Amino acid sequence: LHAPFEERFGFPLLEAWAMTETGSGGVIAANVEPRKIGTSCFGRPAPEVDVRIVDDSGHDAPVGTPGELLVRRAGADPRYGFF
């Protein structure tokens, strides 16, 4: 219903990911084109956010493999904006 919503109301409906634990420091939103409407894609992280997907051993998971999402603020203060 994403595309019909945008067509009917005339403004973008943004998908996003966040957690209470990350506060405002780790929000990822599909606010940059192409937004891939209707694909359940919540976008790419902004340059201020570092993300990794790791396996059970803590190593980077290969593309297409399930894993755990690790999120932190990029730069010198990785806790900035996080709880």
List the helices and strands and how they pair.
Layout: H1 2-9, E1 16-17, E2 28-29, E3 49-54, E4 68-73
How do you describe this structure in short?
The chain is mostly beta strands. It has one helix spanning 2-9, and strands at 16-17, 28-29, 49-54, 68-73. It has one domain (2-73).
Care to describe what's here?
By secondary structure, the protein is mostly beta strands. It has one domain. The protein is 10% helix and 19% strand. It contains 1 helix and 4 strands; from the N terminus they run αββββ. The chain has one helix spanning 2-9; strands spanning 16-17, 28-29, 49-54, 68-73. It has a two-stranded antiparallel ribbon with strand order 1-2. The longest helix has 8 residues, at 2-9. The termini are far apart.
* Major sheet summary line: 2 strands, antiparallel
Instruction: Kindly estimate the percentage of residues that lie in beta strands according to DSSP.
Output: 15-25%
Strand order of the largest sheet: 1-2
Q: What number is the mean pLDDT?
A: 89
End-to-end separation in angstroms reads: 34 Å
Number of domain modules:
1
Residues in helix, %: under 10%
- Catalogue the unreliable spans: none
Total beta strand runs: 4
Order of helices and strands: HEEEE
Key terms:
83 residues, mainly beta, two-stranded antiparallel sheet, 1 helix, 4 strands, 10% helix
